[in-house]
Design brief:
The chain is mainly alpha-helical. It is 48% helix and 5% strand. Keywords: Membrane, Transmembrane, Transmembrane helix.
């Protein structure tokens, strides 16, 4: 049986699975393009020898022209910086989403991860759009107008401009075509990189909404994430409309009413016969006190 929570976590982590490879691919493509150009340079110098016409009216192919490459590394360093920063943001976003998958935990720590995932990816999107627009404008405003501009001293172009112009005017330089294609691909890879960052923001936004949205993000209590369909605690407002639970009423009990008790009837004893003559009445003779003289002992006075 599949775990729906596990599937949901994988779904929320899937944008990070795009962000990290795209950031790595941008870095790799840029390094390959740089390597193709470095293999054509003379030792450690910035000079390259091009064989072909020296002006637009000449068809000579054996004529050589030494060109000093003065490279503007601004767009290149910006693209490399974005790729490294996006990779770090992808790792942090993965940690944040993994932490926010749990409903329990410290609200302060979870807010930190939510803010990190949201703000960092907003920065990635802004950098990708800004650098792409800047590099495109610089690229379109540079280049040779003809063979007469090839050997002019003091020209400073981006690496993409150099390799693409060499491929355009000297197609026999077979290395210039792949180097130009990789340079353009590196620049346009900022578009899927920005889209991946937006998807990561969506995942972080879903997890933030589960906890109460912007109110929770800015320090509010939000809703209880541990219980489904439970409103947040409101101590000062009216009681929330909780669904009524089952009501239990005591069943009436039948008690016996007061009973009427009757006094028991006396047992009928048989009547006793009355005597014919009343019993003799005996009178008690008073007794003389102890020590008193009897009649014979009394003194007789004459």
């Amino acid at each position: 049986m599949q775990n729906p929570n596990g599937i949901r976590v994988l779904f929320l982590l899937s944008p990070v699975a795009f962000l990290l490879p795209f950031a790595t691919l941008v870095f790799i493509l840029e390094r390959i393009s740089q390597t193709l150009l470095n293999t054509q340079l003379h030792g450690g110098s910035r000079r390259i020898t091009l064989y072909g016409p020296t002006n637009s009216s000449s068809d000579a192919v054996n004529t050589s022209t030494d060109v000093l490459l003065s490279i503007d590394y601004g767009p290149t360093l910006a693209i490399l910086g974005i790729s490294v920063f996006a990779f770090i943001v992808g790792v942090l976003a993965a940690c944040g989403i993994w932490e926010l998958r749990r409903v329990e935990g410290s609200p302060g720590i979870q807010r930190f991860w939510a803010w990190t995932a949201l703000v960092a990816n907003v920065v990635v999107v802004g950098l990708c759009v800004g650098v792409l627009a800047w590099a495109s404008v610089v690229q379109n405003g540079q280049g040779w107008k003809g063979y007469e501009d090839v050997g002019v001293y003091g020209q400073r172009y981006t690496r993409e401009t150099w390799v693409c112009q060499i491929d355009k005017f000297y197609p026999q330089q077979d290395w210039a075509g792949p180097a130009c294609g990789l340079a353009k691909a590196t620049r346009f890879m900022l578009i899927p990189l920005a889209l991946s960052a937006i998807l990561v923001m969506v995942s972080a936004g879903i997890l933030t909404r589960d906890r109460g949205g912007a109110k929770w993000l800015f320090g509010g209590r939000g809703r209880y994430g541990g219980f489904a369909s439970v409103y947040e605690m409101n101590l000062h407002g009216p009681a929330p409309p909780y669904p009524p639970g089952p009501q239990f009423f005591p069943m009436p009990q039948q008690y016996p009413g007061p009973q009427q008790y009757q006094m028991p009837q006396p047992y009928p004893y048989p009547a006793q016969p009355q005597p014919a003559h009343p019993p003799a009445q005996f009178q008690s003779t008073p007794q003389a006190p102890k020590g008193a003289a009897t009649a014979g002992e009394r003194a007789v006075f004459s």
